[in-house]
Design a protein that fits this description.
The chain is mostly helical. About 80% of the residues lie in helices and about 0% in strands. Helix 8 packs across helix 9 and helix 10 runs parallel beside helix 13. The chain is globular, with a radius of gyration of 23 Å.
């Protein structure tokens, strides 16, 4: 990577990735929302089953190791060790190549057995269709970790957008066409996933070309560590992070198997009936996952920036970065979670026009998961902070504690006929509550962030915003429907008006209450202009 590559600050890097995340999520919405309408509840469960298995293999292969590469690259970059950076990348690339091949081969050859393990045999084709993506994403993770470690978030952002565009351009038409041919919902789900696989291939090719064009061949005097020593450093940092991150993916797989099993064995439902109920829960989780993606730009920029400051023993800078990250996360997560909760059913009706019954069934799930969304944001951030401070082992135990809570509550609640699938979002909320409370305690011991000052005003602003959005939606719906039943078009307009009112109220409050600071915008594109317009200090 060339020395002259632009070095981005923490918030500047977060802004680049947040901008890309916004574009990716818009493209993702153009993929997921029509796809959910095409597949329905049953097809959605086939799709999700493949994705959960993919995520386990992917997380084991890539969750912690890219962060290790990012941290080690950042340290070498801060110390001017160019030869160390180059050798680190070569060693990491060989490691990820082996992991990617092993993961893809296992997922493809064991597709039938994995589908049966999940109590969902019809998910075999989607699992097979997604298997090549494991190899590609392994190499992508290595290259992204390397560029992010140098403070350059642009390649990651561009490759993510390319990947998302392929899902829409290929996955959606393929799913629609296969179902129209009468090949079944499992084939439709496999077609949708084919877009994901092709997207990872093209994204990988883009990053390879990017790195080849910007290879830095300038001489450097530093003597790099041996390949064995570098590999040892990667594994020592990466394995604990991988264990903490993969624990949640593994728990999600066991949890899905548990829910499907309890619906079938505990309540006596058939496979298709159980898949339909699980799919309704999956629709609500999709909304949460689309929003939660905005947490990752902050954490991906946090790790290399804070690691570089720690390498310089600049404690004040580390604490500033951590506090700023908390402030950005609360500004994003609290209104998002409250908004999803108070407008849960209207939002589900808006995005699932072809599945009206499923939308009504998914609304109560989203009402609970809206608050879980806030906790997921905080879990992602606090995990990253603990990993930055070298406390990689702590998130392993906190995630396991939350996972045990989730599996236990699911087993109990889903098996109760009066609760059934509604036990899934309740257990999810309890799971992340346990993780976040424990994480916040350990983060306090490392960085002493001022929690009361960071959370109090955003909570107040979000509560007022939620009340305004709920009231405006209710008023608009009554006016548009004339007091009768609210149709799709009337609900859609009222929902958008309610969301708009919430955005305006929250925007005014974060400035009026001093939640947003000038330092939070200085590194953002056109930030100084916004500071002047909003009169921030």
């Amino acid at each position: 990577m060339a020395k002259q590559a632009k070095q981005q600050s923490f918030l500047g890097g977060a802004a680049v990735l947040a901008g890309a995340a916004a574009v990716v999520k818009l493209i993702g919405a153009a993929y997921k929302i029509p796809l959910n309408n095409i597949l329905g509840e049953v097809g959605k469960t086939y799709f999700n089953t493949a994705y959960y298995i993919y995520n386990v293999l992917l997380t084991i292969s890539t969750a912690g190791l890219p962060l290790a590469i990012s941290r080690l690259t950042s340290q070498a970059h801060a110390q001017g060790r160019e030869n160390q950076k180059r050798k680190l990348f070569r060693v990491a690339l060989r490691l990820f190549f082996v992991l990617g091949v092993a993961g893809s081969v296992f997922m493809f050859t064991q597709a039938q057995g994995l589908a049966r393990f999940m109590n969902n045999p019809m998910a075999r084709l989607p699992i097979m269709a997604l298997s090549p993506a494991v190899f590609c994403v392994c190499l992508l993770a290595c290259m992204r970790g390397y560029t992010q470690g140098q403070g350059n978030m642009t390649p990651t952002a561009a490759s993510q957008i390319l990947e998302a565009m392929c899902k829409v351009g290929l996955g959606l038409p393929c799913a629609w066409y296969l179902i129209r041919l009468g090949l079944g919902l499992d084939a439709g789900a496999a077609g949708a996933i084919l877009g994901v696989t092709v997207g990872t291939v093209l994204s990988m090719c883009f990053l390879i070309q990017y790195l080849l064009r910007r290879r830095d061949r300038s001489p450097s005097a530093d003597v790099p560590d041996s390949g064995t020593e570098i590999l040892k450093q990667i594994l020592l940092i990466g394995i604990p992070i991988t264990l903490s991150n993969s624990a949640m993916s593994i728990i999600s797989v066991i949890d899905t198997k548990n829910v499907m099993g309890r619906l079938q064995n505990g309540l006596g439902l058939g496979e298709v009936e159980a898949a339909a109920l699980n799919g309704q829960y999956g629709f609500a989780m999709d909304m949460v996952n689309m929003v939660v993606a905005f947490a990752y730009p902050v954490t991906m920029s946090l790790l290399p920036a804070a690691s570089a400051a720690l390498a310089r023993k600049d404690t004040a800078e580390v604490n500033r970065i951590v506090s700023s990250a908390f402030r950005v996360i609360t500004i994003l997560s609290l209104p998002a979670g409250v908004g999803l909760s108070v407008l849960s059913t209207p939002i589900m009706r808006l995005i699932l026009p072809a599945q009206p019954e499923a939308a009504l069934a998914a609304g109560p799930h989203l009402r609970v998961l809206g608050f879980a969304c806030i906790l997921i944001f905080l879990m992602i951030l606090t995990n990253a902070i603990l990993q930055t401070y070298g406390k990689e082992i702590i998130p392993i135990f906190t995630v396991i504690a939350g996972g045990v809570t989730k599996i236990t509550l699911n087993y109990i609640l889903v098996g109760i006929p009066e609760i059934n699938i509604h036990g899934a979002p309740i257990s999810t909320l309890c799971c992340y509550s346990v993780i976040v409370v424990l994480n916040l305690i350990f983060v306090w011991k490392c960085a002493r962030p001022p929690y009361l000052r960071l959370f109090a005003k955003p909570i107040l602003a979000s509560a007022l915003m939620g009340g305004a959005a709920w009231a405006v939606y209710g008023l608009a719906a009554r006016v548009l429907s004339g007091g009768g039943s609210v149709g799709f078009g009337q609900n859609a307009l009222a929902t958008l008006v309610g969301i708009g009112a919430g955005v305006v109220v929250y925007g005014v409050l974060i400035v009026a209450l001093g939640i947003l600071r000038a330092e939070d915008l200085r590194a953002v594109p056109h930030g100084r202009t916004l500071i002047q317009i909003l009169h921030l200090r």
